[in-house]
């Protein structure tokens, strides 16, 4: 770029030419926040943070914070599935967490993330919905799993999925208010598997793959790929958004990296 | 830790109006000066006058255009009467949310104002350095480029190459060497 | 229901489960024990945890925790007004929105903004506007968004919202006249009114008379269990340095003397809360210096 005559502070340059600013970092193998291209941000998981919920967790990945609460209610089952309960996951991207989001109905991004997570939970049969049956054809449990994004700094899918899995994991449906734990309707949720994910941003022009993109990297990237794996390393879902092309080799590398990452994330989740 | 001793929060009483002048980050209310931002208290001595008391902000407020401020903006639309721009940087502070501004045809340059054509001065996508001349209407700030060091600082040619200024009203494409008309800023 | 199509849909209706208590279960009442948390005296507040700067994308942010009550707040602006047709204004506007997370209360809350949230948002805007120097932000807008993650008592939740919002405003570097501290109090009768049934229809003064046979105790910063027994409550928003009140919200019945006494208590408590706010903000300076 012909920029000899004008000098800018780094922050001004980043605002005016975000892609160019970013490219100058990645060609050196680092990112503006100091991470290497393939490194994920520090992650923490807290269990049971909300006492009014049946199960809850808070997950922080770098600057992204998601709080998830599970609320159990009772409803009539569907006619075509009289012995199955409901699992209703939703991701809320409120205007509080970033200036990208406006008040009102859920943004397209929120709908997309909610739907992607719903698909993973449903297709990989995380929870046996028959466990949620109270009386066949009459009453079943509904699990409302709401993940509220408190602070948004990119990679909401990984954070929301991890928060939802952690919240379901410590979810207990308690019908008895006292200490009598032997009530037959009270039980702890049993998860068949725990899918976790790793997300990568794709840059078409420079063919760079970045692990765990933050919000600025997300906005200038050409596409994103999310790989969801369960604890045995089986794929539960691969989602690619954006128009970026992605070779088979890149996809393989991402899966390998995702395996490592989800293993590490599982370790963080299992410590208390 | 000496500076933390002088750290103040909004509402903190700093002194008497007879002792100090109210500077930035402070206000006076019923004979007293109070802090209005979180920051470090500073006293600037004025010879012969009362010393000015200021509070240097610790968490800088997000940038807002003010009259006379130099801003950097991107042209989004042009029409014969004005060029509409998004104000991206105020001084050296980037705005988190872009503010809207317009450069009216009479504010493009200082001389021969009646000969100015907007489309010979700015094109959508150009990065322009301008000065805020008024708060404008409900929506847009009014900006001016009527000065040598104000005008287009970056541009992309029709062919997609970047433009280099060759005079105060012409720029050349680095790819095709074609000349395009702009109100250029004098490089500093 | 346009908005529901934008979310993963559950069943059309569902109800909260009825909680069964064992026979020997004895819930807390104000007649047996002093306060729900037995360590607290009537005038004691819950310990406050307050921290700034958790939302990196916001201009300013804060998080507050009063034991189980947890709120986060993000402040954006001053930023250009997006809504068209408002006309030129040489003052800024303050827009405040509070949202309860669906899992924040005992009963699940809806995903749409309900009337209570709208009312609360307005109360907060009114209580915070006097403290902000809006004349410095012509034709701009400051947005305050609050999310209640968990609520343990309505009054304390509103009070905490005032506190957390004003700390977030200060953290955003927005010029203010003073911080606003919020405090709540409930009037809880501590003995069972002896003649609650017999006198209710006898005299014209019965509505106040029946309750006032028992002088209620003022519980500062009441939690949910205590609120169940309250006759009324007060939420006070107060600027501690300027010694000015920006908002009073009094509900329920109480004698004038009780109300003025509770206002005094709240002012006193606000000064304590102010010390915590002060500390949290000065801490944010230290963080950057180190």
From TrEMBL, chain A:
A GO cellular-component term linked to this record: cytoplasmic exosome (RNase complex)
Family the entry assigns: Belongs to the RNase PH family.
Keywords from the named record: Cytoplasm, Exosome, Nucleus, RNA-binding, rRNA processing
Record flagged with keyword Cytoplasm: yes
Biological process, per Gene Ontology: exonucleolytic trimming to generate mature 3'-end of 5.8S rRNA from tricistronic rRNA transcript (SSU-rRNA, 5.8S rRNA, LSU-rRNA); nuclear mRNA surveillance; nuclear polyadenylation-dependent rRNA catabolic process; rRNA catabolic process; TRAMP-dependent tRNA surveillance pathway; U1 snRNA 3'-end processing; U4 snRNA 3'-end processing; U5 snRNA 3'-end processing
PANTHER family the record matches: EXOSOME COMPLEX COMPONENT RRP43 (PTHR11097:SF9), EXOSOME COMPLEX EXONUCLEASE RIBOSOMAL RNA PROCESSING PROTEIN (PTHR11097)
Subcellular location: Cytoplasm; Nucleus, Nucleolus
Listed InterPro entries: ExoRNase_PH_dom1, ExoRNase_PH_dom2, ExoRNase_PH_dom2_sf, Exosome_comp_Rrp42_subfam, PNPase/RNase_PH_dom_sf, Ribosomal_Su5_D2-typ_SF, Rrp43
Keyword flag Oxidoreductase: no
The protein, known as: Ribosomal RNA-processing protein 43
TrEMBL record, chain B:
CDD domains: S1_CSL4
Organism superkingdom: Eukaryota
InterPro entries (alphabetical): Csl4, EXOSC1_C, Exosome_cplx_N_dom, NA-bd_OB-fold, S1_domain
S1 motif domain boundaries: 66-146
Gene Ontology BP terms: RNA processing
Sorted UniProt keywords: Cytoplasm, Exosome
One Pfam family, short name: EXOSC1
GO terms, molecular function: RNA binding
One Gene Ontology CC term in the entry: nuclear exosome (RNase complex)
PANTHER family: 3'-5' EXORIBONUCLEASE CSL4-RELATED (PTHR12686), EXOSOME COMPLEX COMPONENT CSL4 (PTHR12686:SF8)
Protein name as catalogued: Exosome complex component CSL4
Organism: Linnemannia exigua
TrEMBL record, chain C:
Gene Ontology biological process terms from the UniProt entry: nuclear mRNA surveillance; poly(A)-dependent snoRNA 3'-end processing; rRNA catabolic process; rRNA processing; U4 snRNA 3'-end processing
A Pfam family this chain is assigned to: RNase_PH
Domain of life of the source: Eukaryota
Entry keyword Oxidoreductase: no
Gene Ontology CC annotations of this record: cytoplasmic exosome (RNase complex); nuclear exosome (RNase complex); nucleolus
Domain Exoribonuclease phosphorolytic, first and last residues per copy: 45-175
Keywords in alphabetical order: Cytoplasm, Exosome, Nucleus, RNA-binding, rRNA processing
InterPro entries attached to this UniProt entry: ExoRNase_PH_dom1, ExoRNase_PH_dom2_sf, PNPase/RNase_PH_dom_sf, Ribosomal_Su5_D2-typ_SF, RNase_PH
Region (Disordered): 192-214
An annotated Gene Ontology molecular function: RNA binding
Subcellular location: Cytoplasm; Nucleus
Protein family (similarity comment): Belongs to the RNase PH family.
Record's protein name: Exoribonuclease phosphorolytic domain-containing protein
Organism field: Linnemannia exigua
